């Protein structure tokens, strides 16, 4: 992913290049409204619905994650101290997502026919997911028989946690699509593009500590794992529209994120005397606040019509 010609590019190009690509994608979506007239959704075949939601899910999930991963050549050459800071920023992003999804769990559980059942399933979802990922991590460490941690394996865990979260995004897209609400659908996609672009560097931050660059297929696989489930969520949202299912998926994602945060802290601790430094605390807070701006403030502006395309 970072060939010799990429390494020869100026640092400022590596830093702002993904931003420019994101701007182009965002502009195309914003000004072209590519989803068309949804008034015929009711008469569409199942295959047509699945195909359209696949395209929309790729635009909202896989593409922005891939754009964010383009920061890998920039962050991999950072000093260890600053690489840890970047990983702390990624942890802040994950922590915000966990808090946001906790609110979603309570919201969907409250809207479910049986709130107590939904909350019970959510608690089980968090606990079982955390336990399974913890046991998998312990097995992996025993298998490796070394104190060294694989950044690539941590990156795959991060991608999995983000992928579980992406199912919830897809549920919203699927519901908006099946209801024929083109304006809401466009607004959701725009918001998720802005949101998911931060997931790319979150995934590759752990890999950046490795001396050797993994083969390109790993980046492609992690991008699909992190962003692809938006497509699955869209399919489920269009046919199920279940608050109980949404609460369970969000809870599963929360459990995965909690385990990934522990793994990332261990990864930092392997190279440093302390995890909680002033720099790490600052970047963690910045990541959390940045996601608040992207997820809440800009989404509200979109929904209130301030940023709606003409």
From TrEMBL:
Single GO MF descriptor: zinc ion transmembrane transporter activity
The keyword Transcription is assigned to this record: no
Signal peptide: none
Residue ranges crossing the lipid bilayer per the database entry: 12-31, 51-75, 82-101, 116-136, 156-178, 184-207, 219-238, 244-262, 274-294
Alphabetical UniProt keywords: Membrane, Transmembrane, Transmembrane helix
GO cellular component: membrane
Protein name: Metal cation transporter
């Amino acid at each position: 992913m970072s060939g010799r010609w990429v390494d020869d590019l100026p640092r400022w190009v590596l830093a702002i290049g993904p931003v420019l690509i994101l701007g182009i994608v965002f502009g195309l979506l914003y000004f072209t409204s590519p989803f068309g007239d949804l008034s015929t959704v009711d008469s569409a075949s199942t295959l047509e619905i699945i195909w359209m939601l696949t395209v929309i899910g790729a635009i909202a999930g896989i593409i922005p994650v891939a754009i964010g991963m383009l920061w890998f050549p920039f962050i991999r050459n950072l000093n260890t101290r600053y690489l840890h800071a970047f990983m702390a920023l990624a942890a802040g992003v994950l922590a915000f997502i966990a808090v946001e999804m906790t609110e979603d769990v309570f919201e969907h559980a409250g809207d479910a026919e049986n709130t107590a059942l939904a909350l019970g399933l959510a608690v089980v979802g968090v606990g079982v997911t955390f336990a399974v990922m913890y046991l998998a991590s312990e097995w992996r460490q025993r298998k490796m028989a070394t104190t060294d941690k694989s950044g690539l394996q941590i990156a795959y865990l991060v991608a999995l946690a983000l992928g579980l979260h992406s199912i919830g995004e897809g549920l919203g897209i699927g519901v908006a699509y099946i209801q024929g609400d083109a304006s809401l659908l466009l607004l959701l996609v725009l918001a998720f593009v802005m949101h998911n672009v931060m997931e790319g560097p979150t995934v590759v931050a752990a890999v950046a500590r490795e001396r050797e660059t993994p083969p390109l297929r790993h980046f492609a696989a992690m991008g699909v794992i992190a962003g692809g489930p938006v497509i699955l969520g869209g399919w489920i949202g269009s046919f199920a529209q279940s608050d109980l299912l949404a609460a369970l998926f969000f809870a599963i994602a929360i459990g995965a994120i909690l385990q990934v945060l522990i793994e990332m802290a261990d990864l930092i601790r392997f190279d440093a005397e302390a995890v909680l430094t002033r720099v790490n605390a600052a970047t963690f807070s910045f990541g959390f606040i940045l996601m608040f701006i992207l997820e809440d403030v800009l989404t509200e502006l979109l929904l209130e019509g301030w940023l709606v395309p003409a």
